[in-house]
C-alpha cells in the first residue's frame, strides 16, 4: 500500500497537542466550545455519511475493544521501520498510545466535516513543529498506521476500506503539513523562557513567572505547552495566569500531581534561572472585546489562572462588563489566589467574586450556580479539573445557559489540572 507523499515545504518543531496525532483538546461544538454530542462535536449523522466515512467508522467500531493492541503494534512497527523517528517521541509511550487512538476517533467523528478536520488537525500540525516533525515523516507514519489497522480489523478489511483510509489519512496529513508550513512563516517552533520568580503558594501549588527570549503574543484565557530540562520531549499544558503585560513576562499556576513528572518538577525542582521551552499559545477560552454582555466564570483549583487573566484583561480594557467569578476549592487553603481576586473586586465594582468551599467532600459549585443568577444571558467560562468542568457545564446548561455560550478547554490532561 502506497501512501501519497504530501507536497508542502519543510517545517521546524513547535507548539500544539502532544505527540504524533496526540490530541489535547476536542474541537468545539459551536462558537462557545460547548459540550459535544454523543458522536462527537460536529459529527455528520450516520444516515448522511459518505461511503468513505461509513467504512472508516466501521473499522474503528471493530477496533475499540483492542485499541491498546492496535496502537502498541503501530508504534512498534514505526520504530522498527524508521528507528530515527524514535527520538521525536517521549521515553514513556503509555499516554502517547491513548492520544493516537483519540485522534483517530476525532477523524472518524468528523470524516465528512471538512472545516472541523481543518481546524483540529491544523492545530495538531502547528503543534508538531516542536517535536521536529517534517513532511517526509508523514508517508512512513501512514504506512504503519494502515498496517496496524489492516492487521487488527481483518474481519472488516477489504480493498475499499483500505482505499478509504488512505484518502482520509492523506487529507489529514496534508492539513497538518500545510498548517505547519504556514505557521513557520510567522512564528518560531518554540521559545526559551527563563524562570524569574517561583512562589510556593501551598505545599503543592506554585506560581511561576518566566521571561521568554523573544516577544510572545497571546490572549488572556489561552494556554501553552511547557517542557522542562528534566523531562525532555514531555510537554504539558498550562494556562496563562495574567493578561499580556508590558514587560513581556508570563505567569503560570502549577499544581503538583502525584504521578505528574512535569508538574512535580515545576513545583518542587524548578527555580529562578532555570530555562523552560515554551510552545505557542492556543485555546478558544477568550473574550470578544467587542461584546458587552455579562460573564459568569466558574473555576476550580488552579483553573482560576485563566479566569484571573480574563478579569485582568477586562479591567485593562476598562470594559465594565458585569463579571461573576465562582472560585471553588476543597478547602479554604486551596483558595490560594483568593486575595488577588478580592483585591480586583475592591478595585472594580463590576466584579463579584464568590469563593465556594466543598461541604462534607461534596462539590458545592453546581449548587452555588443555581442559587445565584440567572445566567441565561451571560457568556460562561469554565476552567479546572476535567470532572469539575463536566459538572460546571452540566449545571450551567441545567439552568438555561445555551451550549454556544459556554466556553471551556475540556481535555483529558487539562492544563489547569497540571500533569
UniProtKB/TrEMBL annotation:
Gene3D superfamilies per record: Globins, Nucleotide-binding domain of ferredoxin-NADP reductase (FNR) module, Translation factors
CDD domains linked: Mb-like_oxidoreductase (cd19753), O2ase_reductase_like (cd06187)
The Globin domain, residue ranges: 45-181
Catalytic activity: 2 nitric oxide + NADH + 2 O2 = 2 nitrate + NAD(+) + H(+); 2 nitric oxide + NADPH + 2 O2 = 2 nitrate + NADP(+) + H(+)
UniProt keyword annotation of NADP present: yes
Membrane-spanning ranges: none
Bias type Low complexity, positions: 36-46
Cofactor(s) required for function per UniProt: heme b; FAD
Enzyme Commission code(s) on record: 1.14.12.17
PANTHER family recorded: NADH OXIDOREDUCTASE HCR, PROTEIN RFBI
Protein name: nitric oxide dioxygenase
Species this chain originates from: Streptomyces galbus
Amino acid at each position: 500500500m502506497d501512501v501519497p507523499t504530501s507536497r508542502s515545504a519543510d517545517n521546524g518543531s513547535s507548539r500544539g497537542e502532544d505527540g504524533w496525532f496526540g490530541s489535547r483538546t476536542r474541537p468545539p461544538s459551536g462558537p462557545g466550545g460547548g459540550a459535544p454530542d454523543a458522536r462527537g462535536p460536529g459529527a455528520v449523522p450516520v444516515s448522511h455519511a459518505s461511503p468513505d466515512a461509513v467504512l472508516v467508522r466501521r473499522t474503528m467500531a471493530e477496533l475499540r475493544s483492542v485499541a491498546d493492541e492496535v496502537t502498541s503494534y503501530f508504534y512498534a512497527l514505526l520504530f522498527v521501520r524508521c528507528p530515527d523517528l524514535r527520538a521525536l517521541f517521549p521515553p514513556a509511550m503509555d499516554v502517547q498510545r491513548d492520544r493516537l487512538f483519540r485522534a483517530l476517533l476525532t477523524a472518524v467523528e468528523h470524516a465528512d466535516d471538512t472545516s472541523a478536520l481543518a481546524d483540529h488537525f491544523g492545530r495538531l500540525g502547528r503543534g508538531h513543529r516542536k517535536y521536529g516533525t517534517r513532511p517526509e515523516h508523514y508517508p512512513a507514519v501512514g504506512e504503519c498506521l494502515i498496517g496496524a489497522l489492516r492487521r487488527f480489523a481483518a474481519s472488516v478489511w477489504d480493498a475499499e476500506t483500505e482505499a478509504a483510509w488512505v484518502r482520509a489519512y492523506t487529507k489529514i496529513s496534508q492539513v497538518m503539513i500545510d498548517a505547519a508550513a504556514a505557521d513557520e512563516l510567522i512564528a518560531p517552533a518554540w521559545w526559551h523562557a527563563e524562570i524569574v520568580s517561583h512562589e510556593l503558594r501551598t505545599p503543592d501549588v506554585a506560581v511561576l513567572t518566566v521571561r521568554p527570549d523573544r516577544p510572545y503574543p497571546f490572549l488572556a484565557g489561552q494556554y501553552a505547552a511547557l517542557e522542562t530540562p528534566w523531562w525532555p520531549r514531555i510537554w504539558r499544558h498550562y494556562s496563562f495566569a495574567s493578561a499580556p503585560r508590558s514587560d513581556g513576562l508570563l505567569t503560570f499556576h502549577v499544581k503538583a500531581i502525584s504521578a505528574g513528572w512535569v508538574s512535580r518538577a515545576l513545583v518542587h525542582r524548578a527555580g529562578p534561572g532555570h530555562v523552560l521551552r515554551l510552545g505557542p499559545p492556543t485555546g478558544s477560552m477568550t473574550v470578544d472585546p467587542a461584546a458587552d454582555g455579562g460573564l459568569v466564570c466558574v473555576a476550580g483549583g488552579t483553573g482560576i489562572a485563566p479566569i484571573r487573566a480574563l478579569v485582568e484583561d477586562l479591567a485593562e480594557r476598562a470594559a465594565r462588563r458585569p463579571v461573576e467569578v465562582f472560585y471553588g476549592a476543597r478547602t479554604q487553603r486551596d483558595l490560594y489566589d483568593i486575595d488577588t481576586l478580592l483585591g480586583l473586586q475592591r478595585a472594580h465594582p463590576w466584579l463579584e467574586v464568590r469563593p465556594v468551599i466543598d461541604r462534607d467532600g461534596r462539590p458545592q459549585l453546581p449548587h452555588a450556580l443555581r442559587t445565584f443568577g440567572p445566567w441565561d444571558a451571560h457568556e460562561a467560562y469554565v476552567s479546572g479539573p476535567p470532572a469539575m468542568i463536566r459538572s460546571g457545564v452540566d449545571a450551567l446548561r441545567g439552568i438555561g445557559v445555551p451550549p454556544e455560550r459556554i466556553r471551556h478547554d475540556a481535555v483529558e490532561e487539562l492544563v489547569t489540572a497540571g500533569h
